[in-house]
Design a protein that fits this description.
With about 180 residues, the protein is of the alpha/beta class. It is built from 5 helices and 9 strands, in the order βαβββββαβαβαβα. It has helices at about 25-35, 85-100, 120-130, 145-155, 165-185; strands spanning about 10-15, 40-50, 50-60, 65-70, 75-80, 80-85, 105-110, 135-140, 160. It is globular and about 50 Å long.
């Protein structure tokens, strides 16, 4: 099937995968494959002495902040990690607002439990999901209820299930779809 540029049925892509399946690596590879095309952010584990102690958030432009840590105090938490909502919102929300305002393609890694504590983040994700622009987002599998209800059932994005076994094929397929969407008139 030949993809049409700006086809509204193909402008929302949701990559679902278990922890360690390669969601962040996929987002980074896509960003590198199409340099300067996307705005957005990714999240990564923070390790000390080989042990995970938290998570960071970093924009594609390089601005960094803390998403969660074992070492902070917060009323928001997932497992043993306390969410630094202020740091997350300071870093992530401006790039999402910019993407929405400018209509620029957007990468969001990830729409997860920690990120969803932010009401402003939820509102921006919904606004992006309703916009005509391209949005590539990741989330965990099994699917979070909020993601299932608001992003999958309501909007029916192209959904890709990523695993360690299929990650290279997913990258190649996604790269080709994005190339068509971005560059075919």
């Amino acid at each position: 099937m030949k993809l049409k540029a700006r086809d509204k049925t193909l402008n929302k892509i949701l990559v679902l995968g278990k922890p360690g399946s390669g969601k962040t690596t996929l987002v980074k590879r896509i960003s590198s494959t199409f340099p300067g095309v996307f705005t957005g952010f990714f999240t990564e584990e923070v390790r000390r002495g080989g042990r995970r102690i938290g998570f960071s958030v970093e924009t594609l432009a390089g601005e960094k902040g803390t998403l969660a840590s074992q070492d902070l105090s917060s009323r928001f938490y997932v497992g043993r990690y306390r969410v630094d909502l202020e740091s997350f919102e300071r870093v992530a929300l401006p790039v999402l607002e910019k993407a929405l305002k400018e209509g620029k393609p957007c990468l969001v890694d990830e729409v997860g439990k920690m990120e969803l504590f932010s009401i402003s983040f939820r509102e921006l994700i919904l606004a992006l999901w309703d916009s005509p622009q391209l949005v590539l987002a990741t989330s965990r599998f099994p699917i979070l209820t909020w993601v299932e209800k608001n992003l999958i059932f309501e909007k029916q994005p192209l959904t890709i299930y990523l695993s360690k076994e299929n990650r290279e094929q997913c990258y190649l397929t996604l790269k080709e779809r994005l190339r068509h969407w971005l560059f075919n008139p």
